[in-house]
Every structure is written in C-alpha cells, then in structure tokens.
Amino acid sequence: MNISGLNASTYEVSIFNVQGIRVKALTLKDTQSAIETHDLKAGMYWIQVKDPQTAKVKTLKWIKS
Predict the structure, then answer these.
(1) CB 7 within 8 A of CB 24
(2) What phi and psi values does residue 21 have, to the nearest 5 degrees?
(3) Which residues pair with 44 in a beta bridge?
(4) Residues 23 and 44 sit within 8 Å (Cβ to Cβ)
(5) Domains of the chain, with CATH numbers?
(6) Are 64 and 37 in contact (CB under 8 A)?
(7) pLDDT tens digits, 1-43
(8) pTM of the model
(9) Are 11 and 47 in contact (CB under 8 A)?
C-alpha cells in the first residue's frame, strides 16, 4: 500500500481490522511511503493517519483483496 500527499515529515499510522483491533502500527518519515501489507488477510481495514505536530487524525477505509 502506498500513502502519499503527506505534508509533514513524520506521521503515525495505525491499521485496524473490522473488530477494532490494531493489527499494525508504524511511523512514516517521508511525504510518500509504502506500507507492507502482505501479512494482512483479505478484508476491510481502517487506516488512521495522525500528524503528531498538530494532533489531526484522518481515518480511511481500505479493502484488501
């Protein structure tokens, strides 16, 4: 999975399954980053991207097939 268009240099990313369990957490240190998802099963996930400087959070729905 690729994430791009980030404005700050560091973001905290969490991926949650449909039960709300965090299955992956990482820190992105670039404005465009790739996240390895080969270890996740097919299904729907919620991706939460947080800017630690402003505390703004964006939540996205993602479906892995």
Answers:
(1) no
(2) -90, 130
(3) 63
(4) no
(5) 2-64 (2.60.40.3080)
(6) yes
(7) 777 666 667 889 999 999 999 999 998 876 657 788 999 999 9
(8) 0.82
(9) no
